[in-house]
Design brief:
With about 170 residues, the chain is of the alpha+beta class. It has helices spanning about 30-45, 135-145, 160-165, and strands at about 5-10, 15-25, 50-55, 70-80, 85-90, 95-100, 105-120. Helices cover about 20% and strands about 35% of the residues. The longest helix is centred in the N-terminal third of the chain and has 14 residues, at about 30-45.
Length: about 170
């Protein structure tokens, strides 16, 4: 399974990352609670832990200290990725999005939208909003975030480890 890759440049507010955001379309077939459980188990098997269930905030934000994976187990949403100058992508149940540290994300509108989120090595995430005082520390944090050992969906030998090593 090959993901779609999206690259985002620093837009002055949202730092983004040289690593591509990965979007796996129609990556799994389970829906509802069984879909959420499937995602939690798959992510955990690949050492993406500290999972939660919810949605995506309706304002721009990013995490400077960790990468993040979002698995959509219900509904659909239009997400703004990479800040105001980024991409608007429709995601639906069955999609998995791997967001590099520093890449902005925002929910522009959704219907019955539910996701499981998780972080490599069970990291605790910080919250940044594209405000000027965040940048010096956020830039240092983003540069220090290690590459995950495994893709949250495909494991150690496929997907993210190869794709991000090339970036």
């Amino acid at each position: 399974m090959k993901p779609e890759k999206y690259f985002f440049k620093d837009d002055g507010s949202i730092p983004n990352n040289k690593l591509p955001l990965l979007l796996y379309k129609k990556a799994f077939s389970e829906r509802g609670d069984s879909g959420a459980e499937w995602l939690e188990n798959r992510f955990s098997e690949n050492n993406w832990r500290n999972s939660w269930r919810n949605g995506v905030f309706s304002y721009h934000h990013y995490h400077s200290n960790t990468h993040e994976v979002l698995g959509v187990y219900s509904g659909s949403a239009l997400l703004q990725l990479g800040g105001e100058k980024g991409e608007k992508l429709e995601v639906t149940a069955g999609d998995i999005i791997v967001i590099p540290a520093g890449v902005g994300h925002k929910n522009l509108g959704s219907e019955d939208f539910h996701i499981v989120g998780a972080y490599p090595n069970g990291m605790e995430h910080d919250m940044n909003y594209g405000k000027e005082p965040e940048r010096p520390k956020a830039d240092k944090n983003i540069a220090a975030v290690p590459l995950p050992e495994a893709d949250p969906l495909l494991g150690k030998n496929e997907g993210l480890p190869r794709l991000w090593a090339e970036a």
